Amino acid sequence: MRRVDLGYFVRPAEETGTGSSRVEPCLGYLVDHPDGLLLLDTGMGSHPQVDAHYQPKRQPLAAALAAAGARIEDVRLVVNCHLHFDHCGGNPQLPGRPVFTQRIELETARTAENYTLPELVDAAGLRYEILDGEAEVLPGVLVLPTPGHTAGHQSVVVRRRDGTVVIAGQSHDTATGYSADVLAWRAHAAGHGHSLPSFPDWIDRLQQLDPARVVFAHDHAVWEP
């Protein structure tokens, strides 16, 4: 598995919850598999209002893949963790490949106002493979629904000889956020008697898979147990 640096953007203070702006990476991931090269997330799309709001510094998809030792023509399968502009910006450059997405995510992207950039979702030649829940898209590679950031958000689980890796996309903005939910899950499983914070139901499914590492779309940090 290889990380793909697709650039960065500036999240304004009103969206960070900290009172100050934050520069965040935009990261994709390549999964090398005997049955084909899978790419999770394809970078940031462009629109004047988007650019004014987030001040993105884009790394073109071809250059980002080259830096990771791959070419656009090498990519055989695409997964978007969700269809916001900063995760599917390079999709129009990947016609003909199966693009795996949850049904509710694609429907929302096509119907909800100001959800994404429509030209990224319905570019010529895009071929969607619609999922309704968990699916094994390659042997040992699972796509799992991880709703929260969006109703159709999904993550990719890769079974490797050295341990399972979860590519969690934007299920959490940071590894710290993921860690907090896992600790709440652990405390609940241990029957901790005090009031506990809530956590997503799907945390249990991910932890059942015994991840050795969890990586994210907007954080360079890696979660490890």
Characterize the structure shown.
This protein is an alpha/beta fold and 225 residues long. The chain has one domain (2-215): Ribonuclease Z/Hydroxyacylglutathione hydrolase-like (Metallo-beta-lactamase, Chain A, 4-Layer Sandwich), CATH 3.60.15. 24% of the residues lie in helices and 28% in strands. The protein has helices at 13-16, 48-54, 61-67, 103-111, 118-121, 175-189, 202-208, and strands at residues 2-11, 22-31, 37-40, 57-58, 75-79, 98-102, 127-131, 135-138, 141-145, 154-158, 164-167, 211-215. The protein has a 7-stranded mixed sheet with strand order 4-1-2-3-5-6-7. A hairpin with a 2-residue loop joins strand 8 (135-138) and strand 9. The chain is globular, with a radius of gyration of 17 Å.
Descriptive key words:
about 220 residues; alpha/beta; Metallo-beta-lactamase, Chain A; seven-stranded mixed β-sheet; five-stranded mixed β-sheet; 7 helices; 12 strands; about 30% strand; globular
Net shape: globular
Distance between the amino and carboxyl termini: 19 Å
User: Any idea what the CATH superfamily is called?
Assistant: Ribonuclease Z/Hydroxyacylglutathione hydrolase-like
- Tell me the β content: 25-35%
Low-confidence segments, given as residue ranges, are: none
Q: What is the strand tally?
A: 12
CATH topology call: Metallo-beta-lactamase, Chain A
Structural class: alpha/beta
What does the average pLDDT come to?
96
Query: Can you tell me the CATH class?
Result: Alpha Beta
The total tally of domains equals 1
